[in-house]
Design goal:
Structural class: alpha+beta
Helix content: 40-55%
CATH architecture of the largest domain: Orthogonal Bundle
Number of strands: 6
Largest sheet: 3 strands, antiparallel
Strand content: 15-25%
Number of domains: 2
Strand order of the largest sheet: 1-3-2
Distance between the termini: 52 Å
CATH topology of the largest domain: Arc Repressor Mutant, subunit A
Shape: globular
Order of helices and strands: HHEHHEEEEHEH
Bound molecules: zinc ion
CATH class of the largest domain: Mainly Alpha
């Protein structure tokens, strides 16, 4: 079994354990998320699903994503002005998004350890590293902008 197949089976197993029906659209959404290795908007997930199942509507995909999120199998994140992006839950990480090229990068969650501790001790605030991306300008764009000046 490949790693992707193992992840897919794990997701389907959790669905079964929660007595959720595994419909064909649901299986297709899981398939897309497992294969993605990337951050996809609900529209992008829909487009991928529709390549194999043209009959699946965007609202069905939304409902499935919500159900998967409810079981902590999927997480979403807001990256700038665009729609939220989804991926399978896994290793905790943070997001930074470039305002110029709109690429989202994953960053190891421990990069935020110091600021998380500070926020906790000074404000009693608990940081969620994953849910909303920090915005800025990525290294490539900074380089390109510098060259232009
Ligand atoms: Zn949200
Ligand atoms: Zn950039
Ligand atoms: Zn992510």
């Amino acid at each position: 079994m490949t790693l992707d197949e193992a992840r897919r089976e794990e997701v389907l197993k959790t669905l079964r354990e929660h007595a959720k029906r595994i419909t064909a659209p649901k299986r297709a959404v899981v398939e897309v998320l497992v294969g993605a290795h990337d951050h996809l908007t609900a529209d992008e997930v829909t487009r991928h699903v529709q390549q194999v199942r043209p009959d699946v509507s965007p609202s069905t995909v939304y409902r499935i994503l919500e159900e998967l999120e409810g079981l902590a199998l999927v997480v979403h994140s807001h990256t700038g002005h665009a729609a939220a992006v989804y991926h399978l839950a896994g290793r905790s990480h943070g997001h930074v998004t470039c305002e110029v090229c709109h690429v989202t990068y994953e960053v190891p969650s421990d990069i935020f350890n110091r600021v998380a501790r500070e926020l906790d001790s000074t404000l009693g605030f608990e940081l969620d590293r994953h849910h909303v991306a920090l915005s800025g300008i990525c290294a490539q764009c900074r380089h390109r902008l510098r060259v232009k000046l």
